[in-house]
Write a structure and sequence with these properties.
- The complex is a heterodimer of chains A (267) and B (104).
- Chain A has 267 residues and is mainly alpha-helical.
- Chain A has one domain: Heme oxygenase-like (Heme Oxygenase, Chain A), CATH 1.20.910.10.
- Helices cover 79% and strands 0% of the residues of chain A.
- In chain A, helix 2 runs antiparallel to helix 11.
- The longest helix of chain A is centred in the last third of the chain and has 32 residues.
- The radius of gyration of chain A is 18 Å and the shape is globular.
- With 104 residues, chain B is mostly beta strands.
- Chain B contains one helix and twelve strands.
- In chain B, the strands form three sheets. Chain B has a five-stranded antiparallel beta sheet with strand order 5-6-7-8-9. In chain B, strands 2-3-4-10 form a four-stranded antiparallel beta sheet. In chain B, strands 1-12-11 form a three-stranded antiparallel beta sheet, with no helix packed on it.
- The longest helix of chain B has 4 residues.
- The relative contact order of chain B is 0.23.
- The chains are: A mainly alpha (267), B mainly beta (104).
- Chains A and B meet through helix 4, helix 5 and helix 9 of A and helix 1 of B.
- The structure holds FE2/S2 (inorganic) cluster and fe (ii) ion (2 copies).
- One fe (ii) ion binds next to helix 10 of chain A.
- Chain A: It comes from Pyrobaculum oguniense (strain DSM 13380 / JCM 10595 / TE7).
């Protein structure tokens, strides 16, 4: 069975997580039960553990079975993602800067520089494998995913909601990306196919880069933790955060599976 | 809280959520262990990345593969890359007729 199909089935079997999160988001009584914002953040992470597991596998199972051709297709989408991330973030810190606290504005700017570095390295890896970005068209689910944060956050264009909703969407994707890259780093050595010459150096670079990205994405997720720690003190705010986070979690998991499907169809 | 049936658990921890409370539950043979859902090191949920095992002395240990942290599930003590890490919180478990109950 294809890896995309296995992951799709696992995703379907874990839909209950999204239902639970949606139920939580619609119950202010439930959301009032958390002692403080930290307890809310911990509950969120515990609840989404089964979804993080799928995201880990989108790295782990994929890389174990990947072909060089598949890696090229996957990396083209990846490079586009870095670009798309930065266009959303650039908009965020310019057009929407009045809705962001000073202390977070600079952290977002730091993220922009990381995403630019990711784009740089991804295109470099792509070239090492003999690929390029020529004629690239993004997968629809990824385009939707990068539109989601601003679309969701602007539903409440006011302080402090906007920044909390934005990080609910965008930074939750970073959380899933961290574990995906962890999956790649832990498993790439198990696929002899991709270590054959002349691709050995490219694969070594891909693994090193995934390790570097893993650390960056984990830092990008902590931006949400900082914003939520400060503001997720009321049930209303928690509901607003979940409103954006649930959609992002669902979209980003589906998009990763689609990306594998596209890479597999090249066999 | 009722965490589930004994046979649902394995050496791979399962994060069980009931309302706003949660914990991780894992099993080695007939022994069940319950501990906090998030790793004491950097707070990654332990379901997708944790494993429990018996060490050479036969003590139950938890490995969090996120950064290779290891915790002793009896004493709670742990290390990450050889350095002491915050202890892991453990919860009492009771198995009644194959049903696993955790006192949080
Ligand atoms: S998060 Fe578990 S060892 Fe670091
Ligand atoms: Fe990135
Ligand atoms: Fe990122």
């Amino acid at each position: 069975m294809s890896i995309a199909k296995i992951l799709r089935e696992e995703f379907e079997s874990k839909r209950y997580v999204f239902d639970e999160l949606k139920r939580a988001a619609s119950s202010l009584d439930f959301l009032a039960q958390f002692r403080d914002s930290y307890q809310f953040i911990d509950w969120f992470k515990a609840t989404i553990d089964p979804i993080l597991e799928i995201n880990y596998k989108t790295g782990a199972l994929w890389i174990r079975n990947a072909t060089v051709k598949g890696i090229i297709l996957w990396t083209r989408q990846g490079a586009w993602n870095e670009w798309a991330a930065n266009s959303a973030l650039a908009k965020l810190i310019t057009e929407y800067r009045d809705y962001i606290d000073d202390e977070f504005l600079n952290v977002f700017a730091h993220q922009v520089s990381d995403e630019a570095r990711h784009f740089y390295i991804r295109t470099k890896v792509l070239k090492m494998y003999g690929g390029s970005m020529e004629d690239f068209q993004p997968i629809k689910e990824w385009a939707d995913l990068f539109e989601w944060p601003l679309r969701c956050a602007t539903k409440r264009l006011e302080k402090p909601y906007f920044q909390a909703k934005f990080t609910g969407a965008f930074q939750t994707v970073e959380l899933t990306a961290t574990v995906q890259h962890k999956g790649i780093v832990d498993n790439a050595h198990l696929n002899p196919e991709i270590w054959k010459e002349p691709y050995r150096d490219a694969t070594r670079m891909l693994v090193e880069f995934s390790r570097e990205i893993e650390d960056d994405e984990s830092f990008h997720w902590t931006i949400a933790e900082r914003v939520w720690a400060k503001y997720a003190t009321t049930p209303e705010m928690r509901a607003e955060i979940l409103d954006c986070a649930v959609g992002a979690l669902e979209l980003s998991t589906i998009a990763k599976i689609k990306r594998i499907e596209a890479a597999e169809s090249s066999r | 809280m009722r965490a589930g049936r004994l046979e649902e658990f394995s050496e791979k921890p399962k994060v069980v959520v009931a309302g706003n409370r949660h914990c991780a539950v894992a099993r080695l043979g007939g022994s069940v262990y319950a501990f906090e859902s998030l790793c004491p090191h950097a707070k990654w949920p332990l379901g997708f990345i944790g494993r429990i095992f018996l060490n050479r002395e036969g003590r139950p240990m938890l490995l969090c593969a996120m950064h290779g942290g290891v915790w002793d599930l009896v004493s709670g003590e742990g290390t990450v890359e050889g350095k002491p890490a915050p202890p892991i919180r453990r919860y009492p478990v009771e198995v009644v007729d194959g049903d696993v109950h955790v006192r949080l």
